C-alpha cells in the first residue's frame, strides 16, 4: 500500500513563483526582441528618408536663384495677398 505524502506548502509556493518568474522572463525576452527588430527597421527607414532630404536640399538651391521684384501687399476683407514678379536668375529651370 502506498501513501502519498502531503506536499510541503512552501515548496509548492516556491514552484508557483518560479514558474511565474520564468513566464515573465520569457515575455520580457520576446518583447525585447520585438522592440530591437522594430528599432532596426525604423532606423533603416530614417536613413532612407535622410537621403531623400539631402537630395531635396540640392533642389532648394534652385529656389535661391529666384528673385522677387515689384512686390506689393494688398489687403481686402481680412485677406492679405502678396503680388509681385518672380525672375529666375539661375542656370537651371525652376521646378
Outline the structure in words.
The termini are far apart. Strand 1 and strand 2 form a beta hairpin. The chain has one helix at residues 9-64; strands at residues 66-76, 79-88. The chain has one domain (9-88). It has a two-stranded antiparallel sheet with strand order 1-2. The mean pLDDT is 81. The protein is α+β, with helices and mostly antiparallel strands and 95 residues long.
Shape: elongated
> Major β-sheet, in short?
2 strands, antiparallel
Q: Which percent bin holds the helix content?
A: 55-70%
Gyration radius over CA: 35 Å
Provide a quick synopsis of the model.
By secondary structure, the chain is an alpha+beta fold. It has one helix spanning 9-64, and strands at 66-76, 79-88.
Highlighted features:
single chain, 95 residues, alpha+beta, two-stranded antiparallel ribbon, elongated
Give the arrangement of secondary structure elements.
Elements: H1 9-64, E1 66-76, E2 79-88
Antiparallel strand pairs: 1-2
Amino acid at each position: 500500500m502506498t501513501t502519498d505524502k502531503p506536499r510541503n506548502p512552501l515548496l509548492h509556493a516556491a514552484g508557483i513563483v518560479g514558474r511565474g518568474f520564468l513566464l515573465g522572463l520569457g515575455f520580457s525576452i520576446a518583447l525585447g526582441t520585438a522592440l530591437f527588430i522594430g528599432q532596426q527597421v525604423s532606423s533603416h527607414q530614417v536613413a532612407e528618408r535622410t537621403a531623400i532630404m539631402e537630395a531635396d536640399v540640392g533642389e532648394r538651391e534652385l529656389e535661391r536663384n529666384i528673385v522677387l521684384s515689384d512686390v506689393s501687399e494688398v489687403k481686402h476683407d481680412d485677406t492679405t495677398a502678396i503680388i509681385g514678379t518672380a525672375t529666375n536668375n539661375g542656370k537651371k529651370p525652376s521646378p
